[in-house]
Amino acid sequence: MRRPLLATLAAAVLTLAACGTADTPATPAASGGVTPIKLQLQWFYQAQFAGYIAAVDRGFYSEQGLDVQLLEGGVDIVPQTVLAQGKADYAVAWVPKALASREQGAKITDVGQIFARSGTYQVAWKNSGIAGPADFKGKKVGNWGFGNEFELFAGMTKAGLDPGRDVTLVQQQFDMQALLKKEIDAAQAMSYNEYAQLLEAKNPATGKLYTADDFTVIDWKTNGSAMLQDAVWANTEKLGDPAYQQQTVKFLAGTIKGWAYCRDNPEQCRDMVVAKGSKLGKSHQLWQMNEVNKLIWPSKAGIGLIDEADWKQTVDLSMTTKNQTGDTVLTKQPEGVAYTNDYVRKALDQAKAAGVDVTGAGFKPSTVTLSEGGA
Amino acid sequence: MRRVLSVLAAVVVFVALWEGYKAVGDPDGTVLFGTRVLPRADDLSMPHVWDMLRRLGRPELTGGRPVWQVVLGACLFTLGITVAGFAAGAVVGLLLAVAMQRFRLVERGLLPYVILSQTVPLVALAPLIAGWSGNLSFGPYPWQDWMTVAVIAAYLSFFPVAVGMLRGLQSPQASGVELMRSYAAGWWRTLIKLRLPAALPYLFPALRLAGAAAVVGAVVGEISTGTRGGIGRLVIEYSREATSDPAKVYTAMLGAALLGLVVAALVSLLELPLMRHRRRVPVVTM
């Protein structure tokens, strides 16, 4: 009668379910012309995913015959794993982390590189004397860990520092309190999220909000240690199926239209995100929308097209950058089809034919004024 | 009445401690040999109690509902999940206890695994359950996200019930069991007439532990799987705003604490009709 732990657990699950399991078919047949699709996001609804939300709300997916359901992320939800397990048809994930999952056996392929640029900053106080990664020597440097830290480590390595010895590494929380309280000298921040949180906080000395003049921002894009971030990943095995191929092109076409819409109508997209029940305030979401647009537009070759040089830089950094425990993201070159431009090219052609501006050559970011608490 | 007063007194003492520490504590915290031994007392780390209360009254977002409504709604949602998880966990725990009492072999084989089950970290378990359960369905009704959270709550709450109940079922003295045997009472009758009544004083403390565990499971499960609507999700969403609105984080935590109190009260209500004139067993442990 010895039962392993899993059996006990399964018994509990079954007791609750009290019925059989119904496996969802991998690619549900298009019934009535509408194909249901699940897209796994990396986190809760926020403007980082505005293009997908807009494509759902404005009907860009349904005009492609797709009924897209967005799945929110959570602390322990790993989008590329959800995709590899077949619980979602596509997933949004950062390239280095997804490649690491690939090396662990997840069969996924990057089919659309939505964010062409990285939004990761390292932020320090202006008066701290930190002007570049070389100045981190002997300082307390905050980072998020869990694979989000490699651009920082690559930047420090490039500046000639040994991240394991020359700096004190501090695990950072979701908020920026550690920097504000000066517990750390430099904090990791996304341009579209944590950096805005700093500018929404009140400076107790002046009674006014902090401004960009209070901080030094080290942008990894200008340091040559940036890695590719938000991309649309598809299931590699299913990509052998012509139906899934077509569906991928349609999905990308709708996605492209959604992001183009958010470039031209940031306020409307902000409102859609807020209406989705995001707990972040309106000015914060508009800031995020604007910053995310900057990571996409202008897109020289067209949104979603994977740039070979950027890809190579991401893979090279993933293989050579060691974190404090001496690990690299990848131990070898990605095998098989790690990315393909086949589907996004077709989607871009389709969007262009429909009159969508897929390069956004004339895109000018706006200036967003943040209010206290992002309200 | 005295109980209500003592609860109120506890709240007053807590507020006094919080504000008292804020008044005398070092805003930068006390650091001994490079380790912080006392927390920072500044407004960013420890907002004033009245700031939290005021925050409860103000809207969550400009033009939105006031925070107290949002927090209360989230508490109700999580309460539902907790009750479902608690009920499922209690049933599983009871069945396991009875099976372990009935068959010595089951006890020897299963009990170590029951204990082992509680050493699996929740963060590892939550995505697994979310992964498996996605394919389950109740006939035409598909699996819902909240059910994943309820399973996590059940997983934590079955344990104290199983262990406490087993202890209770084994508590009758040999003379009692032998008396039943002399009446030619079978196992079932012995269970109903002797073992179950004898187990009650052990069951209720176990249920209280299970109630607390179910709350923890529900809140952590929500955080882990990102299930929308509950207090756990609210804690993590508000904590992202800790940089600019520290009082808001504590409103969600107040909600979580309130939820724990409500569940504890509900469990002790269960006790009332059954526990009159019975002796109490203070602690149930292994």
TrEMBL record, chain A:
Species in which this protein is naturally found: Pseudosporangium ferrugineum
SsuA/THI5-like domain mapped to chain residues: 47-268
Oligomer status and interactors: Homodimer.
InterPro entries according to UniProt: NMT1/THI5, SsuA/THI5
UniProt keywords, alphabetically: Iron, Metal-binding, Pyridoxal phosphate, Signal, Thiamine biosynthesis, Transferase
GO biological process: thiamine biosynthetic process
Entry superkingdom: Bacteria
Pathway annotation: Cofactor biosynthesis; thiamine diphosphate biosynthesis
UniProt GO MF annotations: metal ion binding; transferase activity
Entry's family note: Belongs to the NMT1/THI5 family.
Name of the molecule in the record: Thiamine pyrimidine synthase
Endpoints of the signal sequence: 1-22
Catalytic activity of the protein: N(6)-(pyridoxal phosphate)-L-lysyl-[4-amino-5-hydroxymethyl-2-methylpyrimidine phosphate synthase] + L-histidyl-[4-amino-5-hydroxymethyl-2-methylpyrimidine phosphate synthase] + 2 Fe(3+) + 4 H2O = L-lysyl-[4-amino-5-hydroxymethyl-2-methylpyrimidine phosphate synthase] + (2S)-2-amino-5-hydroxy-4-oxopentanoyl-[4-amino-5-hydroxymethyl-2-methylpyrimidine phosphate synthase] + 4-amino-2-methyl-5-(phosphooxymethyl)pyrimidine + 3-oxopropanoate + 2 Fe(2+) + 2 H(+)
General function of this protein: Responsible for the formation of the pyrimidine heterocycle in the thiamine biosynthesis pathway. Catalyzes the formation of hydroxymethylpyrimidine phosphate (HMP-P) from histidine and pyridoxal phosphate (PLP). The protein uses PLP and the active site histidine to form HMP-P, generating an inactive enzyme. The enzyme can only undergo a single turnover, which suggests it is a suicide enzyme.
TrEMBL record, chain B:
Residues covered by the ABC transmembrane type-1 domain: 75-271
Membrane topology, as annotated: Multi-pass membrane protein
Cell compartment(s), UniProt: Cell membrane
Signal sequence interval, chain numbering: none
Pfam families documented for this protein: BPD_transp_1 (PF00528)
GO biological process, one term: transmembrane transport
Protein keywords: Cell membrane, Membrane, Transmembrane, Transmembrane helix, Transport
Main location class: membrane
Transmembrane helix found in the keyword field: yes
GO CC annotation terms, alphabetical: plasma membrane
Residue ranges of the TM segments: 67-98, 110-134, 146-166, 199-220, 249-270
Amino-acid biosynthesis listed as a keyword: no
Family, similarity comment: Belongs to the binding-protein-dependent transport system permease family.
Protein name per UniProt: NitT/TauT family transport system permease protein
Source organism per UniProt: Pseudosporangium ferrugineum
